[in-house]
């Protein structure tokens, strides 16, 4: 397993931060998880996992770019507002 640089998030931390940002944006818009998922064209269960920072149980969040863009449109935020900086420099484990 590759070692993270000092101050750099792990993929788990990175995914959880995106999940927190999704939840805050959704709540600011006054939308439910179900409505957000429907408007973005994804399953409610999938969106619920995203807010937890997971793609699958025990797997860090790793959505498709098209899904993130759809969520940005629904939540009226920029992609830059959802994705933390810095990102992990090591590739995610598969």
Quick overview of this protein structure:
This protein is mainly alpha-helical and 94 residues long. Helices cover 53% and strands 5% of the residues. The protein is globular, with a radius of gyration of 13 Å.
SSE order and pairing:
Blueprint: H1 11-29, H2 33-40, H3 44-51, E1 54-56, E2 59-60, H4 65-75, H5 79-82
Antiparallel strand pairs: 1-2
Helix pairs in contact: 2-3, 2-4
Low-confidence segments, given as residue ranges, are none
Question: What is the beta-strand fraction?
Answer: 5-15%
Count of runs of 4 or more consecutive helical residues? 5
Main beta sheet: strand number and arrangement? 2 strands, antiparallel
Strand order of the largest sheet: 1-2
Taken from the alpha-carbon principal axes, the silhouette is globular
Helix content: 40-55%
Which structural class fits the helix and strand makeup?
mainly alpha
Rg from alpha-carbon coordinates: 13 Å
Order of helices and strands: HHHEEHH
Overall pLDDT level: 91
How many E strands? 2
The first-to-last residue Cα distance is 11 Å
Features:
single chain, 94 residues, 5 helices, 53% helix, globular
Descriptive notes:
By secondary structure, this protein is mostly helical. The protein has helices at 11-29, 33-40, 44-51, 65-75, 79-82; strands spanning 54-56, 59-60. Strands 1-2 form a two-stranded antiparallel ribbon.
């Amino acid at each position: 397993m590759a070692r993270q640089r000092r101050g750099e998030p792990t993929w788990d931390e990175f995914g959880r931060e995106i999940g927190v940002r999704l939840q805050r944006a959704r709540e600011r818009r006054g939308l439910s998880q179900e409505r957000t998922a429907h408007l973005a064209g994804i399953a409610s269960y999938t969106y619920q996992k995203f807010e937890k920072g997971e793609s699958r149980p025990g797997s860090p969040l790793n959505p498709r770019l098209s899904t993130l863009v759809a969520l940005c449109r629904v939540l009226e935020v920029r992609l830059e507002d959802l994705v933390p900086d810095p990102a992990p420099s090591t590739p995610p484990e598969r």
